[in-house]
Design a protein that fits this description.
It is a single chain. This protein is an alpha+beta fold and about 800 residues long. The protein is built from 24 helices and 21 strands. The protein has a six-stranded mixed β-barrel. Strands 12-14-19-16-18-17 form a six-stranded mixed beta barrel. Helix 1 packs across helix 10, helix 8 runs parallel beside helix 11 and helix 8 runs parallel beside helix 19.
Length: about 800
């Protein structure tokens, strides 16, 4: 049990870090391919001007690509949202594009028989029920599907897409009529440096100095996908904490195993002391034995964890579109070893400290109990120091120190609550008068007996259940919040890239199509925050909740009045027709995360021009409605004369997902694509389905990793049952001799495990509910609802499993023959 608990925890920590290291290594090895060069410069709304393009050409070989969302339509008018990518004939600059059939890029995309070609994601063929050779309309262009994309080398660099990929030449994009001023198109220029040994960041610094007002987003092959890298670290951090939870649960098993070890060696300890060995010598001998076994467990755990990426290499490569290069990360293995040794020492030293003070007289007293001995202060102090060091290592080694600290403190609070519960149950059982039938009397006595299973079962099962129920509650609430809209508030459609000239006509079209629906329309642009209070954005250290605002481009708008779904919490809104200095309204939580207050300034680059605005007010935004709202809303005079497009939403009075509603939505989608081919329609349900699928996959991965904690809990329970086997066998023999039947003994065990399991499960539910409520409401800003059906079913199943495992573990006690056992007494 000792070996299993240590091995499992070390395996979890080292395995998670090895997987994260393999993903990071794969990202680094293929960074030039993913980026498409050594450095990239990305613009929103516009292409590079001649001076910027000349500068890029001076750095090396240049390739460009345009990406945008658009609507693809079949010959029958069936529409689908697609992620459009327009490339140059030399694409890809690095790596290889693989198509089916095996065509060159020119053969697949160039003009043949009067039409341009398209290469598409296989998912689009299924979605629109088309095949190679069929035609699609994108904007004002009709093109032919000539190939299916099997490998897109720079796919990861483009981030999450809401639709399948469609690839065309930039010459074809020019004929779609989608290239309009203010349209949401991203132009990315990838540069393969002329000097391969040059430092990519130095090239980016030179470009920023030459064009300080460019407002581009830059990346280098040294940091090809910052968001992906950050998410790898976050995921690894969380799973490392889960591994620590497994070690914490396993620590209970370690303590039980060491206590049993000390008890078995009680006679040996007494003999050693009788022949002159000191207490410290005895402690050292036993500590060496414990550390030897711990070392074996750690080695097994490290080898298993290091092997995990190699075992999963084939599966991961075929399932996830991420580069994965299996390897061994020594820092992660070192971390696993440290936590393994720390856990072994923390849970062993107090138990071994008792062995130091076992008296010689114990050699002659079979009934001597070492549980009555308390370890000396020095050993307890050493244990406390090790616990603090391990806590500090876990917090400081995490990317998010605050989250790690909250997680560990919460785990310790739950552990303390469970230990208090165990003590309370035992104390209450001890004080209860004898009542009821014999099985109940025996069950109550077993709860507080000297070798009772109550502490081990409560701690191990309780902590494991708390973690698993927390994950389940977060998962259910997150899915419910994403799936359920608010009638009359949650839009069914977002319409993007509405040009000013067609804005009025499109509004009339929507009104005719859905006369009862609520229609909102606002101007929309994309801008990048470049400075706060005059300090450049790259020097700002925001809070975790606001860091995303400084990463990439943000949607911005301007308005004469506060947007619906938001309320002013500080400052005043500008008057209608305001003509003074540029003003901006900022979401209050983001302002706090960026350490901004009223009258501070924000500099934003829009269309290559940097505008500095003063914060006039702060707003509280209800993001759960999915309505039109922005982190930043500017005064209208800020962008006077700038080319803009409009964003519109359509919100039906009812949000029921009935067949009639679905049919009406699809009819509107088809009509919009036919009459306004350059407007991009985003169906909210489709977008949420994409997000829910990601949440489902992530939840599955987290549950699979968290099952390690449950396995550790089962190991602890098995250890506790094994340690109590001798005492239970002795008791069963005496009771059988006095006339107790097997059924009565079995009934007492069922009642014992039922009482302990039920009370533990109830406390685990309470702790898990508090944790899930905090995560959903405080961290994710969603509403929390208790899914009682799933919760009660989970608790009932957990209690049944506890009873079954307990009965299996005590079956040997019931099978013991009185005669054979009595002969040894």
């Amino acid at each position: 049990i000792f070996l299993g608990c240590i091995t499992l925890g070390v395996f979890a920590i080292s395995g998670v870090n090895a997987l994260a290291n393999s993903l990071t290594q794969g990202l680094g090895d293929q960074s030039r391919t993913i980026l498409g060069g050594d450095v990239s410069y990305s613009f929103i709304h516009r292409q590079a001007n001649p001076d910027e393009l000349a500068f890029f050409l001076g750095q090396g070989t240049v390739d460009s690509a345009a990406t945008l969302r658009a609507m693809a339509r079949t010959s029958t008018g069936d529409p689908a949202l697609v992620e459009l990518k327009a490339v140059e004939p030399v694409y890809p600059p690095v790596g290889a594009l693989k198509l089916q059939p095996d065509l060159t890029l020119s053969a697949a995309l160039d003009v043949t028989e009067g039409t341009y070609g398209l290469a598409v994601d296989p998912a689009l063929l299924a979605r629109l029920d088309v095949r190679i050779g069929d035609q699609l309309k994108i904007g004002d262009l009709t093109a032919t599907i000539r190939a299916v994309i099997t490998t897109e080398p720079d796919q990861l660099g483009g981030g999450l897409g809401l639709g399948p990929r469609v690839m065309m030449l930039q010459a074809a994009l020019a004929q779609t009529n989608l290239l309009q001023p203010g349209a949401l198109i991203r132009w990315t220029y990838r540069v393969a440096l002329a000097n391969p040994a040059a430092v990519p960041d130095a090239a980016i610094d030179a470009a920023n100095k030459a064009f300080p007002e460019a407002g581009w987003q830059t990346r280098s092959r040294l940091s090809v996908s910052p968001d992906f890298e950050k998410n790898i670290v976050r995921f690894a951090d969380f799973l490392t904490l889960v591994g620590l939870t497994a070690l914490l649960v396993g620590g209970v098993g370690v303590a039980s195993a060491v206590r049993a070890f000390v008890e078995r060696k009680r006679g040996h300890v007494a003999i050693l002391k009788a022949v002159g060995a000191s207490g410290s010598r005895v402690f050292t001998i036993m500590l060496v034995e414990i550390l030897t076994v711990a070392t074996l467990g750690i080695i097994i755990g490290l080898v298993s964890g290091a092997a995990l990426p190699f075992i999963l290499a084939g599966t991961l490569r075929s399932v996830i579109p991420f580069p994965f290069e299996p390897g061994v990360g020594l820092p992660g293995l070192g971390l696993g070893a440290l936590f393994g040794y720390g856990t072994a020492l923390i849970f062993s030293i107090p138990q071994l400290g008792r062995a130091r003070d076992v008296p010689v007289s114990a050699l002659f007293r079979d009934a001597f109990e070492t549980d009555n001995i308390i370890a000396r202060r020095g050993y307890l102090a050493a244990t406390g120091a090790l616990a603090v060091a391990l806590f500090a290592l876990a917090v400081l080694g995490s990317e998010n120190h605050k989250l790690a600290a909250y997680y560990l403190v919460g785990s310790l609070i739950v552990l303390a609550a469970l230990r208090a519960l165990a003590s309370g149950i035992m104390s209450l059982a001890r004080r209860l008068p004898a009542f009821g039938p014999l099985p109940l009397k025996l069950a109550i006595r077993n709860i507080y007996a000297p070798r009772a299973l109550t502490p081990a079962l409560t701690l191990a099962i309780g902590l494991g259940l708390t973690l698993l129920i927390t994950i389940a509650l977060v998962d259910v609430n997150l899915r419910q919040n994403l799936a359920q809209g608010q009638a009359g508030k949650t839009p069914s459609f977002f319409f993007l890239d509405i040009r000013g000239a067609e804005s009025a006509g499109f509004g009339d079209f929507l009104q005719n199509q859905a006369p009862d629906a609520k229609i909102e329309k606002v101007a929309m642009m994309r801008g990048r925050i470049t400075a706060l209070n005059g300090e450049t954005a790259d020097k700002i250290k925001p809070e975790e909740n606001a860091a995303w605002v400084l990463e990439g481009d943000r949607g911005i708008t301007f308005a004469d009045s506060p947007p619906e779904g938001s309320s002013i919490t500080a400052g005043q809104w500008w008057p209608s027709g305001y003509t003074g200095e540029p003003l901006v309204s900022l979401e209050q939580d983001i302002a706090s995360g960026l350490h901004l207050k009223l009258n501070d300034t924000i500099s934003v680059n829009v269309l290559g021009r940097t505008i500095t605005a003063r914060i006039a007010n702060l707003r509280k935004v209800d993001w759960r409605s999915f309505g039109i709202n922005f982190v930043m809303v500017f005064s209208p005079n800020t962008f006077a004369g700038a080319p803009t497009t409009f964003l519109a939403t359509l919100t039906p009075p009812q949000s029921d997902a009935t067949p009639q509603t679905l049919k009406a939505e699809m009819a509107l989608l088809k009509a919009t694509a036919a009459q306004f081919p350059t407007i991009t329609t985003l169906r909210v349900k489709d977008a949420l389905d994409t997000v829910q699928n990601l949440v489902r996959q992530l939840s599955l991965a987290i549950r699979a990793a968290s099952s390690v904690v449950l396995i550790a809990a089962l190991l602890v329970l098995a250890g506790a049952l094994s340690a109590a086997q001798n005492a239970r066998s002795y008791e069963a023999v005496i009771l059988k001799t006095l006339g107790a039947t097997r059924s009565r003994l079995l009934g007492s065990y069922v009642l014992e495990f039922l009482i302990i399991g039920a009370t533990t499960a109830v406390l685990a539910l309470a702790c898990a509910t508090l944790a899930a409520y905090a995560i959903i409401t405080l961290l994710m800003k969603f509403s929390f609802k208790m899914p009682w059906g799933v919760t009660i079913a989970t608790l009932a199943l957990s209690i049944v499993l506890i009873i079954l495992i307990g009965l299996i573990g005590t079956s040997r006690s019931l099978a013991q023959k009185p005669a054979s056992r009595l002969r040894t007494l």
